[in-house]
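Example record used in the benchmark description.
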Amino acid sequence: MDSIFDEGGPYHIERISPDKISMQTSIPADPDGFIGRNCPDSACSPGYFKIKLGTGITGIQLKAYCPYCRREEAPNGFFTEAQIDYAKQIIVNEVAKGINKMFQNALDLDSSGSKHLGGGMFSVELNYKPGNLPSPVPPIEGILRRDLVCPNCGLEHAVFGLATWCPDCGKDIFLTHVIKEFEVIQKMLGDNTRRQDLLGARVAARDIENALEDVVSIYEAAMRTMTRRKMGEAGLSDEQIEDKLKKIGNKYQNIELARKVIEDEFDIKLLEGFEVNQVEALRVTFEKRHPITHNLGIIDRKYLEKARSGELKGRDVKVSPKEMTDAMALVIQLLQRFHSLIFPDTSK
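Model output (structure tokens):
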């Protein structure tokens, strides 16, 4: 092995036993300074996330966590397949370089890879030209991500879906993820006037309608995620949880039906403490999603029956930026209340 590897060099090659060597290399970060991580549990979905080194826990760290399933591993236990392939490419290249060097030495070739044998009328020239080695491909995955900072330890990281746990300190930061989603919608609403001036009233109206659909979807996804987690903590199997969620269906898209589900499943009065007029306004706003999603925004009989409003059938349903801002504020309060009641130990 001495004749294959030269100790030192850019990869800090070092012999650690007669038949073992160690090599070191850093994993390249993406243009924003993040490096990929992947949960070692193949059943974890999506499993992939990113962190920014130098943020979060900067002292001795014995454990790191998957932000989706909270699996614990040593900090170096979350390498991605692309990173492992990158390291393997480096090793293969170093082995190939060492073998090329051994071959040149065995044939006593000069620095140009040549050797002359004989002289006079008869001579032989040996030439050895090793093939070009492929450059290791940096493991930088270009995937749309959600960036945020842990409010507890300060870790800058990115996830690819709603996550729950900080990868460094392991604390529950689910609501931080959820609020981050609403902040994106609020930025879109803040640009509504400019969009109307630039692209017209219909485009601006569609932006608000899309914002409503997103708010309802986030609320439903957050409620289902917390419901699934609580059922898992209660000892239900994955099959039992999925069966219950199937029965719940899309009830979390409706304020009143969501209230009943939470009360039946967890004996929690979700709307307790909220003003009746606030809840009623949110209920009506959520009902506007039906004609927007299923009827091109045109008011129909089904909507009028559920919303119990004085609007006229056949007209466009109206949603204002202020209505959406008020709805988001109340939705966040509802999610915070549910989270604090269902996970009291992590909400302190």
